[in-house]
Prior knowledge:
Helix content is 60%, strand content 8%. It is α/β, with parallel strands linked by helices and 200 residues long. It has a domain at 46-163: Periplasmic binding protein-like II (D-Maltodextrin-Binding Protein, domain 2, 3-Layer(aba) Sandwich), CATH 3.40.190.
Amino acid sequence: MVSFSKELKELLRDRKTLFFMIALPLLIFPVIFGIAGFVGKQAIDKAETKILNYGLVGGSYAPEIVEELSQPDKFRKIDMEVNADYRSIISNQIVDFVLVIPENYSAQVLKNGQANLKLYFNDAGLNLVYRRVNAIVNSQAEKFKQVAFESLGLDERQQQALIKPIVLEKINTADKRENWGKKLAGCCLICYLFCVCKGR
């Protein structure tokens, strides 16, 4: 404890160290995070508004998905050869993605089973292809679930229990002061370790 007090006093006397450890990060980090946040938001906005070229296989099985993809401000369908090499046309930037819909795609999920749609795309970089297509697929999946629930005659409470039979609820018993106290103690420990290492 005496050693810690000594190190702390020396640290407080060393204005240069204090500046580089506390003042400089407090000044620079908000600027860095602000720039990073702005650049990141610009990139996400660009990826979300980009018109995606796509190829579609099995579209006749899923007219609802075809309708969702028929938004000229978001998607543009590109005709492909029957036996096209998906990886090649994606790597050559002819299309951004290829969606393959299986024959068993149907709202009658209890009868036909799970439909395994395949989405081919280049996931390198920020393109949001999966997120945008997944939003369309999820909206259809929700409709399919409702059709299945209605056919089973389940009410809303039974539907929720079937979707998630068990829920683990997180209840934090620590008050705010305790939370902040432990976080502050962690920061002090890091400063102390830094001082010890610096002293060596």
